[in-house]
Design goal:
The protein has 617 residues and is α/β, with parallel strands linked by helices. It has 23 helices and 21 strands.
């Protein structure tokens, strides 16, 4: 009989569930996609229900339930930390204890109560789950493992080795000394939300210069040659308080933390550049130490810091490894998958066969919807649509819209697992248009204008546009690489002055720097997704249709959502997002809607009603 294992992560951020059957990944999804609460930390009941339905099983068919960390050990760390800082941490202690006693501490009882099952429950350690999520789906028989995040139970980073069907952790860095928490402290200080806005800080860094790097190294962090570190806790408040940084931190870097939504100063850009450089150096040192300890030719990574795709690009280019694979759901959501895989391979000692590319199935592990379900949604909404029964005609029509400069919402196949849109729930545009970046940021995503968009590029054309060597693929949008020199455009003299001096980031980012300006960041970098037919199917064929029409093998690919909202899951969410923004067209499987021009008051009312559901983060 088949063996079914359900993995769960919950109660911190990005709760998720994953189902594997006889070692094969069947389904995985974050709870936020169903509840529409971004980074939802609640018990992932909706995600669990989806996974069981996708696997066509019930709770009674499960052989094991695996939870992604050990709550009692984490609680021990929490108590020991509060005692060490007492009495200054009493406010934080008082805020944390009710939640712990209600939801987090007695997790076995909580799981049994929620799921009403006697299925055996397995608890893995947090960084074991990360390591398992990185190695077991990877294409490598053997690999070094590096996991880096804020904190699990006690560990904040781990080095290990994966071989065959087993992983071994060889060393850990322990709380409070944490590269993830160091980066999050600067995220908080620069006015972005912790556990959500770190990627904004990474996108801000190229606008600045690392003027504070020496101060960070001298006063905040003692970074060792092997990547281990010691933080001067006088500058931080996360052990005992309700904020990340202390008054001493504020005095060192020029004042109080930036208020969210207030203007971004050059100081914040320079701070972002500085901590980004320190983080890249730390990760490179950790990667080299992993290589020294294991002697492996390959590296796999997970943990929230593994989403720092700029640092990942440097590991590929400058590190000692032949190849790198990163878990697409690198944060806590991926821990659900890792816990299930750890149970199957490590605890049950089941064999593992590495797939030629990987076993993640393009990370397209969420729900899909039939044409009948989609048409029913649109009929209830009372809207006209065109249906294409021939795929080639559909793709040629959509490629034509993109070539005309239209912005297209693309909803196709199974939803992505992880934070990136990979061609299933995407908003697409023509990267050759200089105005596309600003238009998509301000009129469609409603987000900060400084943030870059990612390109998706046909796998076989990647080296025409980007300097990817030695890696030739980035299917999960987790590597940053330079735009190739032959694609770059020399800016005019006035533009050079704007690039250096203009405080308005909107004007800086809109300068044409390449033949694909909408996806070229201010430092000529791009966060790349390579697209191949095996993983991406119809999305690859759409890009080929666009290439035949325009000669261009690249599209702008951003997630199908507005700021503050999770990526859309169901067709009704896609339709509502389409109506409330200035997208020009919507593709729902084989159905296409082209937006009619409506009165401004009607459009603005629809948009306001939609956006008020989502708190800006």
């Amino acid at each position: 009989m088949a063996v079914h294992i359900l993995g769960i992560s919950a109660h911190y951020h990005d709760s998720a569930a994953a189902l594997i059957t006889d070692g094969e990944i069947i389904a995985a999804a974050q709870e936020e996609r169903f509840t529409r609460r971004k980074h939802d930390a609640a018990f992932p009941q909706h995600a669990i229900d989806y996974c069981l339905a996708e696997g066509r099983i019930g709770l009674g068919d499960l052989n094991y339930i695996a939870f992604y960390e050990k709550s009692l050990i984490k609680f021990d760390r929490l108590l020991e930390t509060y005692v060490s800082y007492a009495p200054s941490g009493f406010r934080s202690f008082r805020a944390a204890m009710p939640v712990w006693l209600k939801d987090k501490l007695f997790m076995r009882r909580r799981l049994r109560g929620n799921l009403k099952t006697r299925t055996p429950i397995v608890f893995t350690e947090h960084h074991e789950s990360h390591a398992a999520s990185a190695f077991f789906p990877s294409p490598f028989d053997s690999a070094a493992i590096l996991t880096v995040d804020g904190v699990g139970e006690w560990a904040t980073a781990a080095i290990g080795k994966g071989e065959g069907n087993r992983i071994t952790l060889l060393g850990e860095l322990e709380f409070p000394h944490s590269l993830g928490l160091l980066y999050s402290a600067f995220t908080y200080y620069c006015g972005f939300k912790v556990n959500s806005g770190e990627y904004k800080l990474m996108g801000l860094a190229p606008y600045g210069a690392p003027l504070y790097e020496d101060a960070i190294r001298e006063h905040l962090v003692d970074l060792k040659a092997d990547g281990s570190m010691w933080l001067n806790m006088d500058y931080f408040n996360y052990c005992q308080g309700l904020t990340m940084t202390s008054r001493r931190f504020h005095d060192r870097f020029g004042g109080a933390p930036r208020t969210p939504e207030s203007p971004i100063e050059q100081r914040h850009m320079d701070l972002a550049a500085s901590i980004q450089k320190v983080t890249e150096d730390a990760l490179l040192r950790m990667a080299r130490e992993a290589h020294r300890r294991t002697g492996s030719k390959h590296l796999v990574m997970a943990g929230g810091v593994a989403l720092n795709c700029v640092a990942n690009g440097r590991i590929v280019r400058e590190g000692p490894f032949d190849d790198l694979w990163i878990q697409p759901a690198a944060g806590d959501a991926g821990g659900a998958l890792g816990a299930a895989l750890f149970t199957w391979h490590q605890l049950m000692d089941k064999p593992r066969i590495a797939h030629a590319r990987d076993g993640q199935k393009g990370s397209l592990l969420g729900p899909a919807f039939s044409s009948g379900e989609i048409e029913s949604v649109l009929q209830r909404a009372g809207v006209a649509f065109a249906r294409y029964d021939d795929e080639r005609q559909l793709l040629e029509a959509v490629a034509g819209l993109l070539a005309q400069g239209k912005v297209v919402g693309w909803f196709s196949g199974r939803m992505e697992f992880g934070p990136r849109a990979l061609g299933a729930r995407s908003i697409l545009g023509d990267p050759r248009q200089p105005s596309m970046q600003a238009r998509m940021n301000l009129k469609i995503k409603f987000r900060e204008s400084f943030r870059p968009f990612a390109p998706c590029v046909l796998q076989e054309r990647a080296r025409d546009y980007f300097d990817l060597a030695p890696a030739d693929e980035s299917p999960y949008m987790l590597l940053v690489a330079p735009v190739a020199a032959r694609q770059r455009v020399a800016p005019a003299a006035d533009d050079l002055r704007t690039m250096r001096e203009d405080p308005d980031l909107r004007r800086r980012v809109n300068i044409v720097r390449s033949t694909i300006p909408a996806v070229t960041h201010v430092d000529h970098s791009a966060r790349i997704q390579t697209v191949d037919e095996q993983r991406h199917g119809r999305f690859y064929r759409l890009m080929k249709a666009f290439e035949r029409l325009t000669g261009c093998g690249v599209l702008v690919n951003t997630s199908f959502n507005v700021r503050g909202e999770p990526i859309v899951c169901r067709p009704e969410e896609a339709y509502r997002c389409f109506v409330a923004t200035e997208m020009d067209a919507l593709v729902l499987e084989n159905v296409v809607l082209v937006k009619e021009h409506r009165a401004g008051e009607t459009r603005d009312a629809e948009r306001a009603a939609y956006l008020e559901q989502f708190a800006l983060d």
